[in-house]
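Private note to self, pasted from the team thread so I don't lose it. Backbone tokens:
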């Protein structure tokens, strides 16, 4: 089954084309991204597997036009990988926020689209873009089934005492204010893959997954089901991130608003786009830039990494206590997969639970690696995430059920 996986951002479209024969038998046909949609100078990147990557600079007016560029690249007579659009059997979309409407992936219909629209209030930077992607596919490929996979779905197994906030209960009833989490497809993939890689029975396990990058979250998983996660009502809650502040005292918000004469929207922008790595370092939101600055002795860049490590350590510690132990800790995401110093800083704090860290293996980056010694009571693994594969698998199963 040929499946096109789409991840629409506010000004971008990431995509992968996969040939899915089964959950574990598949091949990547092509991948790429359309960037700077709506700006004067757009970019199309198209990388067919085994061939040279193509980069084109051209204006991209909207997501419909961006989607047409993606599809045209796939069927280009000279460089394409498909004979025609008819070769595409299904399209799978990543959706950031599905609230408590969805506990799994779903076939796109009017009801699903309406509920994704309701959730735009909870993910105003993401869900509207996802809807644009769905509508663009509907116009260009009207007869192709579409499936949506939600970042929040994997977290729907959390108990009420973990997802509820101690606010008036009526806010939950009227406005659906509760913890939803994010990065669910990533946490799901690396927990399952990590357990298999380390020889752990997922159905009888305690796993902590650390997705650490520009956006970061830590999740506690018991017997394959989420019991808690660090992100909350929105992806703002939790640890320090690229431009997001993470956990702060709620009273700081009106205090700063009064001192700086800010509106609610302006304060939201401060917390979501001007804080985190960028706010604390006052230089960059990119961990790679900050790593260079830290190596050169920059105090604020060093502070960013110290705080990031400390935030992850605290979250892991909380979840070890909540689960009464842990069998496996997994690192993934841009920083989790590639920053060995960060992983070392975190793991050195867990000798008290019998974690014995393999410093030599920790030199690895971007590939599946066991980071704990054979004598360690707790296993640690680096598992590169593959959210697109999770989406493709779910899309395949839902479309197959539709055909049966």
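Design output:
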């Amino acid at each position: 089954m040929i499946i096109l996986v789409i991840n629409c951002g506010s000004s971008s479209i990431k995509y992968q084309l996969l040939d899915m024969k089964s959950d574990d038998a598949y091949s990547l046909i092509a991948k790429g991204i359309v960037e700077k949609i709506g700006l004067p100078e757009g970019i199309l990147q198209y990388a067919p597997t085994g061939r040279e990557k193509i980069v084109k600079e051209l204006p991209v007016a909207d997501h419909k036009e961006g989607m047409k560029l993606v599809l045209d690249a796939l069927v280009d007579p000279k460089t394409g990988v498909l004979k025609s659009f008819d070769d595409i059997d299904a399209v799978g979309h990543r959706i950031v926020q599905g609230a408590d409407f969805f506990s799994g992936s779903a076939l796109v219909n009017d009801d699903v689209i309406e509920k994704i629209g309701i959730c735009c209030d909870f993910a105003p930077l993401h869900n509207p873009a996802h809807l644009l992607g769905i509508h663009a596919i509907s116009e260009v490929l009207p007869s192709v089934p579409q499936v949506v996979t939600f970042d929040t779905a994997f977290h729907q197994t959390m108990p009420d005492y973990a997802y509820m906030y101690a606010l008036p209960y009526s806010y939950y009833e009227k406005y659906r204010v509760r913890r939803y989490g994010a990065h669910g497809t990533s946490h799901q993939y690396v927990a399952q893959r990590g357990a298999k890689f380390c020889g752990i029975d997922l159905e009888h396990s305690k796993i902590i997954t650390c997705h650490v990058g520009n956006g970061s979250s830590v999740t506690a998983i018991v017997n394959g089901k989420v019991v808690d996660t660090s992100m909350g009502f929105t992806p703002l809650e939790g640890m320090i991130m690229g431009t997001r502040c993470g956990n702060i005292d709620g009273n700081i918000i009106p205090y700063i608003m009064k001192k700086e004469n800010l509106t609610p929207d302006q304060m939201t922008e401060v917390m979501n786009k001007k804080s985190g790595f960028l706010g604390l370092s006052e230089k960059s939101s990119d961990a790679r830039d900050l790593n260079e600055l830290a190596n050169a002795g920059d105090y604020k860049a060093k502070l960013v990494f110290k705080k990031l490590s400390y935030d992850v350590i605290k979250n892991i510690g909380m979840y070890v206590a909540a689960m009464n132990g842990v069998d496996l800790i997994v690192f993934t995401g841009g920083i989790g997969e590639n920053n060995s110093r960060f992983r070392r800083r975190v793991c050195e704090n867990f000798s008290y639970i019998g974690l014995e860290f393999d410093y030599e293996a920790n030199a690895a980056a971007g590939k599946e690696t066991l980071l704990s010694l054979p004598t360690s009571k707790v296993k640690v693994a680096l598992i590169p995430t593959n959210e697109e594969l999770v989406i493709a698998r779910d899309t395949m199963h839902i479309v197959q059920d539709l055909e049966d």
